[in-house]
Amino acid sequence: MTDFSQTQASSVLPVSPTPWWKSGLFWRTFFLVGILLMVSMGAWIASFRIEQRGPRARQVADQIVSLVTITRAALAHSAPELRRELLFDLASNEGIRIYPLEPTDKIDPVTDGDDLMQSMLPVVQQKMGEDTIISPKVNDMPGFWISFQLEEDDVYWLRLDNGRLKGISGLRWLGWGGVVLLLSLIGAGLISRLLNEPLARLAYAARLMANGKSPEPLPEKGVSEIREANHSFNQMVKDLERVDSDRTEILAGISHDLRTPLSRMRLELELSSLSEESKDGMQSDITQMDAIVGQFLDYARLNNPVSTEILDLGSLMHVLVEDAQRHPDMDIDANIEEGLQIAASEIDIRRLFNNILTNIDRYGRSEDGTARVDVVCRRQGDGVLIEIADHGQGVPEDSFERMLRPFTRMDDARGQANGSGLGLAIVLRIAKRYRGRVSLDNRKEGGLIVSVLFPSAPSKK
Question: Which GO MF terms does the UniProt record name (predicted)?
Fold first, then answer.
């Protein structure tokens, strides 16, 4: 891992840079739990109302029968002159109204929608007689109407207000259900967040790894599956860091050890009696080997700490372009904006620019053998963009990501050439070292575009 990634990792790894309420996984879990709660609650309420319908109907029927029996007994044993006063007391104090049953009464039958009355009717008729009538409305007057016989031919209505028979209203059921549903959804949200938090933290750490950064160790606590997953991920990060460190040390050691024999070979070649043609060929090979060794060392050095400074990128790019134009067979067209500043090391920016140009020199020459290069340096949003394009054959789009990996060359796509395959990998490491990004694209006219975006630095004062 690069030193840049080491500085970017915080002491405590955040769950995710995206707020939890914007997490798709959280909402999928939340809605799944919420729907299950709503379905189960609806089924429970429906089953409860169905199960309690019969017992409640029998209970209410028994109360009505008792009320009718007591009222009939009170009327039967009261003196005729006192019945009017008794009826007034029943109406005002108990809400019980007594009316004579007339043959001309308009009696509304019990409808299918009135489950309570339909369930009560068999119980009432069983106890009071088959000729007992129950109705929700008589003579367009709503209420609970039940007939009873005081004497053989003396039949009356007993009327109660509907409110005395109604159970829990639908509105109250809805209110209670809404409160329970709200509490259940709050609980579902908490459960979903607790379940998804370890996954979000693991996904965020994996994204850091994919971007070349080194995440802080994941907490190895919680349920066994989460502990094992976090432990395995932490171990994988350590193994990858160790492999990367070992590879860097090996590259640095081998490259350093190869420099001495290469220098000796170059000296012996100068003192040899070979023909000039043979000397030139061997000198070219030694120079190429030395350049490859140099790239190995550059790649290894990028793990070392570096000190940054505020660079005037526009001025530096002018100097780099002027130096590169001295190279034979290289034609550079530059468009550089002034006043651009970034926080970086001048040595690293020179190395980045030279690696891209070396890559173009080897792989991006046009058909006439000239390395034509377009260099653009401009401000883009809050950053500074360096865009370097060649006029070669370009690269297949599905190979862009692979080209940024170490030891990758696209010889088949961009002409046969020798190299270490580290050129663009070094460019990527340098960009990440200063919180930059690298992207590849093809020119419509042919050729590869390498774009490097650095964060803009504040102006010097």
Answer: ATP binding; phosphorelay sensor kinase activity
- Domain hosting 406: range is 307-455
Rounded distance, CA 365 to CA 307, Å?
35
Same domain as 329, residue 260: no
Q: Assess whether 44 and 180 both reside in one domain.
A: yes
Backbone angles phi, psi at 317, to 5 degrees: -65, -35
Q: According to the model, what pLDDT value does residue 259 have? A: 66
Contacts of 421 (CB under 8 A, 6+ apart): 406, 407, 408, 409
pLDDT tens, 143-195?
Answer: 889 998 887 778 889 988 877 766 555 566 677 777 877 887 787 778 777 77
Joined together, the tokens standing for residue 455 give 């964060």
165, 144 in Cβ contact below 8 A? yes
Q: Indicate if 270 and 387 belong to the same structural domain.
A: no
Reported for 198-203, long-range contacts at CB under 8 A and 24+ positions apart, including other chains, are 198/222, 198/226, 198/229, 198/230, 199/25, 200/15, 200/16, 200/20, 200/23, 200/25, 200/26, 201/13, 201/14, 201/15, 201/16, 202/229, 202/230, 202/233, 203/16
| Pairing relationship of beta strands 383-390 and 371-380 according to DSSP bridges | antiparallel
Give the lowest-confidence range in 20-34, 109-123, 311-325: 20-34
Counted domains in the chain? 3
Residue type, 26: F
- Hey, how many other C-beta atoms are within 10 angstroms of the C-beta on 249? 12
CB 451 within 8 A of CB 431: no
For residue 441, the domain's CATH number is: 3.30.565.10
Pair (178, 265) in one structural domain: no
What are the b/e assignments for 144-157, b being 16+ CB within 10 Å? bbbbbeeeeeebbb
Distance between CA 337 and CA 376 in Å, rounded? 8
Residue 258 lies in a domain: yes
Distances (CA, A) of 8 to 2, 305, 353, 434: 10, 14, 25, 10
CA distance 156 to 146: 8
